[in-house]
Structure formats: structure tokens, C-alpha cells
């Protein structure tokens, strides 16, 4: 079984981390079953967030009785110190614990630092002193914020999108985190569903000993897939390298990663799925996306009021309204 040391925290986690965003979409009993099955099969690191509706509560229900045997990270999107404390109290209550192993700023638009007047970093330090958190982390989708977080040496861990579609700049960040002894937690290791070969995704990341991927898991078959990689961890083969090269060519450039940071949309367009529909139709079984429900969701693109809120919020600099339009046109042709 591959293991990862999360930099200076010295926390040792299974290379298979459990990303607990998708469990907000399933019932409590099913989520508890999945989480406990993951634990009993060796997974010991679970990542959630205040923003993931009831995901924290599900973790609390599954693990409060074995708290010290697992590593939990959660996140706050607070913009002020007051909200930071409210979020932290809620997370502790939901998780049924009195400490969080890694508490992360959730995709802030700037890198919180002492004396920056937001009071956020000071709040982190105080929470650490009080024993409510063990380590300070930050998550981001922006190269510049992530780079700054590494350079300031203020953070124990960085959570950043990283998969086999990584750019040279992404790889530099991964390297810089290692040089600075910072834990690197890889989100979107399947690029939000666009990478369909999880074995190749795992094998690629296995080359980076200090990187801990968190796989977003919602179904038992997905969990089983990752558990199966523990006994004999996949390593890159020539065949996989060819596949990865093909995917890189197909997915290079400006494509929607499905992160959802551009939402909510005033017209209630499900941007994170609709803006990458063309790719999903061709890379995943297309039947799912041709249902009446999806046809309605895609038709809703007609209601875009071109407020450009989404464009301004997209960390990848995408022209989201234009991308939606293109995907809608392609969808109609595909239908
Ligand atoms: S530009 Fe269109 S898609 Fe984007 S937020 Fe505004 S209404 Fe929604
Ligand atoms: S348009 Fe940008 S912000 Fe919105 S889901 Fe896609 S990548 Fe994320």
C-alpha cells in the first residue's frame, strides 16, 4: 500500500485519500457505509468542507467513535475572523470532534497573511494555540495564490488541482511544495470526471511520493476501484503513457474543469456541468446526459442574461458564457 507523508506535518496518510464532496448527494446511511468501508479497507484521510452541505455531519456520524484513528481536513470560506470562528465551531460540532487535523482556507482570492487586516491568519494561529486545529492549510485553483502560499512558508499544506493533464506551471508548484516541505493534497485528480481511467490517474500520481490525492467518491464501485489499487499499486505502463498523451492532446487548452467556483448563476444554469457537456458526451457514457432532465438543464442556457459573473469568478480565465453557448450548440447537434 502506498503512503504519503504530508510534508512538515509528518502526518502519514494512505495514498488513497477520500474526497467527501460527493457524499453530500447520497443518504446519510449510505454515506456512513461508504466512509466506514473506506476506513476498514485502509483509507485514513478524509477531506471535507463547510461548503459541502451535510458532508461534515456524515463524517461525524461515521467516525466519532474512532476519531483518533483518522485524519480529517475541512475548510472555511470565511472572509472575516468572526465568520472563521462560526465556521470552525460548526465544523467541530458537525464532525463530533474537538480538533481538526488540517484546517484550510477554502479557495480564497488572496493568500491570507498576518497583518493583512482580514484577521484570518491570526484566527488560524489562535485556533491552533487553543488546540482546535493541528495544522494550517490552504486550498486554491489559482497559480498565483498557491505560489504565494508556498513562498510565504505560512502554510503546512496546499490543496491544488493536480492530475495527468497538469501544465508545466502546475508541476513547478508540486516541486516547490516539496522543496518547502509542504504537504501537497491533490484535488481533481480525475479532472472532475473527464479522466475516465482511474488506474492511469493513480499510476501517474504514484510517481510523486509527496502528493496525496483525494478521490471524490460517491458510489461503492468507485470506492472498490481505489481499494483494489492498494494491494498492488498501479505504476505507469507504456500503454498508459500513450493514453495520457492522447488525453493531453484532446483536453489541452481552455476547458471547464467543473470546479463550480463560478456559481451560483442568477439564471440557475448548472454551469459546472453544462460548460463541459461536449467533453462529457464523448468521454463518459452519453446516455445519462441525453435524458429529459439534462435536455432541460442545457435548454436553460438560453436564459443566460450575460451578467458575466461566472466569467469574472472562473479561476481558469474561461469565457464561460461563450463556452456555455458552444456546448449548447454542440449538444443540440449531438441530440
Ligand atoms: S453570464 Fe450567464 S451563465 Fe454566467 S452567471 Fe450570468 S447568467 Fe449565469
Ligand atoms: S467555468 Fe470555470 S469556474 Fe465554472 S466550473 Fe468551469 S472551470 Fe470552474
From TrEMBL:
Keywords: Iron, Iron-sulfur, Metal-binding. It holds the Pfam family Aldo_ket_red. Gene3D superfamilies: NADP-dependent oxidoreductase domain. The keyword Iron applies. Coiled coil: none annotated. Transmembrane segments: none annotated. This is Aldo/keto reductase. It comes from Acetobacterium paludosum.
Amino acid at each position: 500500500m502506498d503512503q504519503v507523508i504530508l510534508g512538515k506535518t509528518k502526518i502519514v496518510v494512505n495514498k488513497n485519500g477520500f474526497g467527501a464532496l460527493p457524499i453530500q448527494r447520497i443518504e446519510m446511511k449510505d454515506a456512513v457505509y461508504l466512509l466506514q468501508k473506506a476506513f476498514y479497507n485502509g483509507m485514513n484521510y478524509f477531506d471535507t468542507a463547510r461548503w459541502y452541505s451535510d458532508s461534515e455531519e456524515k463524517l461525524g456520524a461515521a467516525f466519532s467513535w474512532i476519531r483518533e484513528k483518522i485524519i480529517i481536513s475541512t475548510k472555511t470560506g470565511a472572509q472575516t475572523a468572526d465568520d472563521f470562528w462560526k465556521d470552525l465551531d460548526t465544523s467541530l460540532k458537525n464532525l463530533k470532534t474537538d480538533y481538526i487535523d488540517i484546517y484550510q482556507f477554502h479557495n480564497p482570492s488572496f493568500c491570507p497573511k498576518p497583518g493583512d487586516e482580514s484577521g484570518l491568519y491570526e484566527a488560524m494561529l489562535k485556533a491552533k494555540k487553543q488546540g482546535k486545529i493541528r495544522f494550517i492549510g490552504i486550498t486554491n485553483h489559482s497559480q498565483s495564490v498557491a505560489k504565494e502560499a508556498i513562498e510565504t512558508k505560512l502554510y503546512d499544506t496546499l490543496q491544488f488541482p493536480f492530475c495527468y493533464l497538469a501544465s508545466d506551471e502546475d508541476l513547478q508548484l508540486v516541486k516547490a511544495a516539496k522543496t518547502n516541505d509542504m504537504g501537497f493534497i491533490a484535488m481533481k485528480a480525475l479532472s472532475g470526471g473527464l479522466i475516465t481511467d482511474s488506474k492511469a490517474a493513480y499510476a501517474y500520481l504514484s510517481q510523486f511520493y509527496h502528493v496525496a490525492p483525494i478521490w471524490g467518491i460517491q458510489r461503492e464501485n468507485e470506492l472498490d476501484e481505489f481499494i483494489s489499487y492498494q494491494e498492488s499499486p498501479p505504476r505507469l505502463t507504456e500503454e498508459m503513457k500513450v493514453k495520457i498523451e492522447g488525453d493531453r492532446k484532446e483536453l489541452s487548452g481552455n476547458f471547464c474543469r467543473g470546479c463550480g467556483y463560478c456559481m451560483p448563476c442568477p439564471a440557475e444554469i448548472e454551469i459546472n456541468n453544462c460548460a463541459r457537456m461536449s467533453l462529457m458526451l464523448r468521454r463518459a457514457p452519453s446516455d445519462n446526459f441525453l435524458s429529459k432532465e439534462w435536455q432541460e438543464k442545457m435548454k436553460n442556457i438560453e436564459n443566460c442574461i450575460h451578467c458575466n459573473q461566472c466569467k469574472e469568478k472562473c479561476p481558469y480565465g474561461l469565457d464561460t458564457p461563450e463556452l456555455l453557448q458552444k456546448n449548447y450548440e454542440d449538444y443540440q447537434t449531438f441530440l
